[in-house]
Design goal:
The chain is an all-alpha fold. It is 69% helix and 0% strand.
């Protein structure tokens, strides 16, 4: 009976996650274009035909339509479905990590906003202020339902621990954008300073490897800018889900844990 209840809970979390991340696709498409993301029916970007409810079922509509618009036959980007699947995974993982508690909703909201920010930055090389504010709101909710062991002092330090040095680097070298600075301040409010430093470290390593790969493949020049937000978001996601064991494991290598 307990196993059946757990399976039902995970199934429910997966469905909710897919539906919420489907709305995330709307945000990623509309916010950079200055479109209203609350009102207005979804439409095919190729023919402009409004989509019916049967066209908007996460994952299954794309599969049923074989990845094409029902009305004009234009291809529908697989990324939309991939994002919905990621949402299903995030829903299940949130319940697995934080249980059937408000913390799971806070953690899921954090993963949701990180995904939206990463995709918008990857598409436009900008991080909307509204999205950063949303992350900060998640951080405030985390004061009541914490997703980490960070104290209030840890969170306060986290707001400036990475964002201030990043701001100095941005002014001095131009290597980072203002959106990255504000994002890490908001992330610090959610994670606290220890996990925020870890998130930044993971993001720098991943971003550096990606940049070297692009240079080696001659896809970019040394003077070209690449979106760094997706790597910061990835680092933050790893930090909130398994940051404490990673830090403990690293410290144990030096006999400090």
């Amino acid at each position: 009976m307990l196993l059946a209840a757990r399976i039902a809970l995970y199934a429910f979390a997966a469905v909710v996650g897919a539906c919420v991340f489907s709305f995330g696709n709307v945000l990623v498409y509309r916010v950079p274009r200055g479109m209203d993301f609350v009102r207005g029916r979804s439409a095919c970007p190729s023919c402009g035909h409004q989509l019916a409810a049967r066209d908007l079922v996460p994952v299954f509509s794309w599969l049923a339509l074989h990845g094409r618009c029902r009305y004009c036959g234009a291809p529908i980007a697989a990324r939309y479905t991939v994002v919905e699947l990621v949402g299903a995974v995030c829903g299940v993982v949130s319940v697995a990590v934080w249980g059937a508690a408000p913390q799971a909703a806070v953690g899921f909201a954090f993963l949701f906003m990180l995904t939206v920010i990463a995709l918008i930055d990857a598409d436009t090389q900008t991080i909307p202020n509204g999205a950063v504010v949303a992350v900060a709101v998640v951080g405030l909710a985390g004061l009541a339902w914490p997703v980490t062991d960070a104290t209030l002092v840890d969170r306060a330090i986290g707001v400036v621990a990475v964002s201030v040095p990043l701001f100095i680097l941005a002014v001095a070298t131009g290597g980072f954008g203002g959106g990255d600075v504000k994002l890490m301040a908001a992330v610090g409010l959610v994670l606290g300073w220890q996990l925020t430093v870890l998130a930044f470290f993971l993001g720098v390593v991943a971003g550096g490897v990606y940049a070297v790969w692009l240079l080696a493949r001659k896809r970019v020049k040394r003077t070209d800018a690449i979106a760094f937000g997706p790597f910061l978001c990835g680092g933050a996601a790893i930090a909130v889900l398994c940051g404490d064991p990673l830090i403990a494991g690293y410290l144990s290598l030096f006999g400090l844990a």
